[in-house]
Every structure is written in structure tokens, then in C-alpha cells.
Amino acid sequence: MADSNSVSILGGGLAGCAAGLSALARERGATIYDPSRAARHRVCGEFLSPEVRDSLDQLGVWPLAEACRPALMYSMRVHFGRRVCADRLPEPAIGLSRLRLDHLLREAAAARGARFVAERQAPASGCVLATGRQSCAAPGDRIFGFKAHFSGPPGDAVELYFGDRFYVGVNPVEDGVTNVCGLAPESLLRGLDFSYDQLLELSPALRERTRPLTRTMNWLSTGPLVYGRRTQPEDVYPAGDAFSFIDPFTGAGMLNALETGRMAGAAAASGQSPEAYRRAVLRRLQRPLFAAGVFRASIAAGVGPLLAPWIPGRWLFALTRPA
């Protein structure tokens, strides 16, 4: 068990390590419980908003991330069939794999004194809960995520391809690698025998984009996924997907994990009440959660392709960033 001066953190991903670094910066200890002994590939868009520089800088790890030579993205393109919504990003975004970023954060936290314990721990009062997304869903057409890395021309844009009941993001990460990550309903995937390679063929634009690429790893999948806020014990500090799972198409998931983890670690270390912490996080995330929900509903209603040409891409980008 953690000593009385140590903040207990459940989960050693982005949010958990950010919480640990934040607690350590406030001269508290950090004990991070995670059954995984090392960083690993996770299903993730691996897109980091420009604002992530400030988040990583506040955690004291931006120079380490920069040393990984992440890919830079200068524009965004959203494909609705033949319709394309394109725009320049306000600042260059960053592509860095979860494997590399998770490893970087774990190493930094350990170097500064965090203790990693390779076991699961039940939530206790005052702990930071950063155990990831909820994996159960109500009956119905459940949603699953998938991801793989590819070699080939990486490009310098983040691209989203919306098909019939699915979407896929394509963006470069470090070392000239291209990450392909998406979401689709179980009924569609079952009809394809869960062949994600076949799913890429369903969109002509996506098929054309991935044709010169070669997959370099097996597909990873996760799910079922549940959007929105999580119901957690009132006396803990939930962070990352344990607080709220936002639509991956927003590209804000990794930023939100780092920011909420940093805030959770600071709150737990300083004795801020869990209630006050949650209010502060909601103020930051209320706008992107609402905007993502509206956009998701417009896609489900079939009006996304009609609205896309009239909405500047920078608006969609700005509305889904934390306040």
C-alpha cells in the first residue's frame, strides 16, 4: 500500500502518469497501480492537439516528447463520401504513438520517484482513478474501435473518413509511420468477419488514401465503447476516459487525458475536494463534450455531409478543444 504522503493512482496510462508527475511536482509521493509492467500499443488515434505542448511542458516532459521527433500536421481534411471539408490548423498538431508517449511518461514518472506496482487495486477514498474507458454497453448495436500502423507515404495532415455507420482517422506519427484508427458498429464488423482491411475498402476515398500503405502490425481492437460521463465513487478523482469518453473523431482524447490527469494529481496532492475537482474538469470539458455530441447526432441523422461544406474546419477543431 502507498504511504500516507503518497497519492494512490489506479492506472498507468496517459492520465495516470500525468497525475503521478503532477503529484510529484507538489512534493508528494505517487504510487501507480497498473497490472501492465510496461507501455504497450493501445487503440488510439495518436493525434495530439497543438495545446498539448503546454500540457507536456507543465508536466516537465515536453523536451522528452520533442526528442522523439513526432510528426507534424499542418491541416485537417474531413471526408463525407465525395464531399471534403478542409482547413489549416491554427498551429501544427503532433503525431506520436501511444506506445512511445506512454513509455516516455512512465520513464519520467519513475525517474522522479513514482513507484509502479504491477497489480490491480480497488478504488479507495482519495485515489486518482485513471483506469481507462468503460468496456460495457447497453444491448444494441455496440461500437468497437480498431487500429494498426502502416508504412508508406505519411502525409502532413490529419484526415477523417466518414462512411456508412463508421469512420476512420489517418495521420502520421513518429518514424514515418502512419496510424489508421477507427470506430464501427458490431453489426457492420460481423458482416465483414471483423476484417478491418475489408472495412477500409468500403470508402473509395479511404481506399485510395491507404492503397500505397503497407500494414506493419496486426489490427488491435477494443470495445464495446460507451460515450459520455462515467458514474464513479464520489470520493475519488476520475481522470481521462474514467471521467468521460469523448468521440475519438474530435482528436482531443489524448489531450483530455493529459489535462485531467494533471488536474487530478494536483487536486489529490493539495487536498482539493473531489467535488471541486470534478466541477473544474467539467468547466474545461463541457464545450467539447457538447459539440462532439451534436456532431455525432448530425452524422447519425445523415445531415453531416450536407452541413460539412458550410462549416469551416477550424470551427469544428476549436469547438472540440478543452476550454
Describe the protein's architecture and organization.
It is built from eleven helices and 16 strands. It has helices spanning 14-25, 52-58, 62-67, 98-111, 186-191, 196-200, 204-210, 253-270, 274-300, 304-307, 313-319, and strands at 6-10, 29-33, 47-48, 71-80, 83-95, 115-117, 128-129, 143-151, 157-162, 167-172, 178-185, 214-215, 220-222, 228-229, 237-238, 244-245. Strands 3, 4, 5, 8, 9, 10, 11, 12 and 13 form a nine-stranded mixed beta sheet that branches. A five-stranded parallel beta sheet has the order 6-2-1-7-15. α1 (14-25) runs parallel beside α8. The longest helix is centred in the C-terminal third of the chain and has 27 residues, at 274-300. The model has no long low-confidence stretch (mean pLDDT 87).
| Oligomer designation | single chain
Distance between the termini: 36 Å
The radius of gyration is 19 Å
Give the full name of the CATH homologous superfamily of the domain at 6-42 and 99-135 and 228-319. Answer: FAD/NAD(P)-binding domain
Global structural class: alpha/beta
Quote the average pLDDT: 87
Question: Brief overview, please?
Answer:
By secondary structure, the protein is of the alpha/beta class. The chain has eleven helices and 16 strands.
Strand and helix map with partners:
Layout: E1 6-10, H1 14-25, E2 29-33, E3 47-48, H2 52-58, H3 62-67, E4 71-80, E5 83-95, H4 98-111, E6 115-117, E7 128-129, E8 143-151, E9 157-162, E10 167-172, E11 178-185, H5 186-191, H6 196-200, H7 204-210, E12 214-215, E13 220-222, E14 228-229, E15 237-238, E16 244-245, H8 253-270, H9 274-300, H10 304-307, H11 313-319
Parallel strand pairs: 1-2, 1-7, 2-6, 4-9, 7-15
Antiparallel strand pairs: 3-5, 4-5, 8-11, 8-12, 8-13, 9-10, 10-11, 14-16
Helix pairs in contact: 1-4, 1-8, 8-9
